[in-house]
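Re: zinc ion structure - here you go.
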Amino acid sequence: MKSKTGGKAKKSRQNEADARLKNLGKLLARAREQALARVRVLRKEEQDDAVELPADDLDVARSLEDIETDAGLIERYEYQLKAIDAALSRLERGRYGICEKCKEEIPIERLKAVPFAAYCIDCQKKRNERRRPGEGDVDEPSRNVWTPPEELKESVDE
Ligand SMILES: [Zn+2]
């Protein structure tokens, strides 16, 4: 009786882990699609802005500003795409959801908020504090526009 229950529990834990990975894989794929779509829209806007030259100087200035903003956004989403690709490759290697630094499991809540997180919150905070004092909240999942932290970019480039 006891061993039977134990076996069952172990099996359902394995299923849970599988289901979790499957869901997170979906989440990542969706995040990737969204980022890709954003880049596509922004690229198109950038092109349109460049093609339709406005009539007066004020409009030119405004348009140039738009192009710069778009370029910044494109850059941001491209970082995000890189981070997502890195997360997908970790998923393939069975290392997804494991903190790159302390090798502990990254809490599911964090992965839901930032599906491509490479570090647990503690390690991310330590990295942020070390590099940019006072900007430890750069990876706050509650922010509407997620700004990929510098270190994420680096770990992607490795
Ligand atoms: Zn960690």
